[in-house]
Design a protein that fits this description.
Elements (H helix, E strand, L loop, with lengths): L2 H7 L2 E7 L6 H10 L9 H8 L4 H13 L4 H17 L2 E8 L1 H6 L4 H18 L3 E9 L4 H13 L5 E7 L11 H9 L7 E2 L5 H9 L6 E3 L7 H10 L3 E3 L1 H6 L11 H6 L4 E3 L11 H12 L3 H13 L5 H25 L1
Parallel strand pairs: 1-2, 2-3, 3-4, 5-6, 6-7, 7-8
Helix pairs in contact: 1-14, 2-3, 5-7, 8-9, 15-16
């Protein structure tokens, strides 16, 4: 067994991936035709070219166009089933998936119908594919705190019904975490964890805000913590998990190349690191690709790769019994794979 085969076969867990950002061009074309919506291209190849990352404003343009094609609960169930099928193909056993319900609520889909559609897909995937997911309901930073409170209310009401956390995404610049401090305090009082994005297109101040104002239990991205030694020390002392998405960071100009990405420096600094894909088709990647590229760029072998997976397993927001069962399964599968790669070497 080669290292490439090992990576493709190994069990995985993903903590930072967007449901809407995982829609493939072929699916988007199907949805657009279903609802007679015009897109910048009318073929899969054309849409694939349009998906290709240019800059953050173009990324937002694509993301909003994708979201605009989701008009019914059936559309949401379709994308959730296709997402989970793609996760199963990569042997991703469990995912904590970011979903932005307020966008679809404004498009006329009641939140209860959105969640029911996702939960139908979740039950189907668990029964048919052996994979499942939890849901991080995401507030987009550019909305008002009052609109953000609507999403928080949904998340609090549906804890235990597939919802595992409250997130904060969208453009960091000009939208600091403090804007939503009261909203996240309400969620924290109800026992709902906070997993905001911070420290990708903004620097350390965004991460400090996520820690202090939102009481984040994990940080989406967080790679720019390295610009502030005091912040690195704080994150190391807390062992706050970072949901690192290298290809996303490269596309957004945080790192010039995969080889220059700060992932090894984050690990060397004693920080708690997990590996994730963010918006896979929009960044032309997958979680498997992130592991493959990390192995090549940083010389990671089986032990380092397994550590990254186990890191993710241990900070999932599953109930403790389910988290322990997942870790036992992952550990057993890695033991088998280590024996196979050891024989091959």
């Amino acid at each position: 067994m080669s290292l490439t085969d090992f990576i493709r076969a190994m069990p995985k867990v993903e903590l930072h991936v967007h449901l809407e950002g995982s829609i493939r061009p072929a699916t988007l074309l199907k949805l657009a035709r279903r609802h007679n919506i015009s897109l910048p291209a009318d073929s899969v190849d054309g849409l694939r070219a349009w998906y290709t990352f240019v800059d953050f404003p173009h990324f937002i343009e694509v993301y909003l166009a994708i979201s605009n094609c989701l008009r019914t609960p059936d559309d949401i169930e379709l994308i959730a089933r296709e997402f989970l099928t793609g996760q199963a193909e990569q042997h991703i056993l469990y995912s904590e998936v970011t979903f932005t319900p307020f966008t679809h609520y404004r498009n006329g889909i009641a939140f209860a119908d959105q969640l029911a559609a996702i939960n139908r897909a979740r039950a189907w995937a668990e029964a048919k594919l052996g994979v499942t997911m939890g849901l991080t309901l995401d507030i987009s930073r550019e909305v008002s705190p009052e609109d953000g409170a609507i999403t928080a209310g949904w998340a609090i009401e549906h804890m235990g019904d597939g919802v595992t956390a409250l997130g904060l995404g969208g453009p960091e610049v000009g939208n600091p975490p403090e804007k939503f401090a009261a909203v996240f305090e309400r969620a924290r009082a109800a026992g709902l964890p906070a997993v905001p994005h911070a420290g990708e297109t903004e620097g350390p101040a965004s991460i400090w805000g996520a820690l202090r104002a939102l009481h984040a239990v994990r940080i989406g991205h967080g790679v720019r913590c390295l610009e502030d030694p005091a912040l690195v020390a704080e994150l190391r002392a807390r062992q706050t998990p970072l949901e690192v998405c290298p290809t996303s960071n490269i596309c957004l100009g945080v790192a010039p190349s995969f080889e220059a990405h700060p992932l090894p420096r984050l690990i060397a600094a004693g920080l708690y690191v997990t590996l994730n894909s963010d918006d896979p088709p929009m960044f032309n990647t997958t979680l498997t690709d992130e592991y493959l590229k990390s192995a090549v760029a940083f010389g990671f072998g089986p032990a380092e790769l397994e550590r990254l997976v186990i890191n993710a397993v241990r900070v999932t927001l599953l109930p403790e019994d389910k988290r322990a069962a997942l870790e036992a399964r992952v550990t057993a599968e890695f033991e088998t794979l280590r024996a196979q790669i050891g024989q091959a070497l």
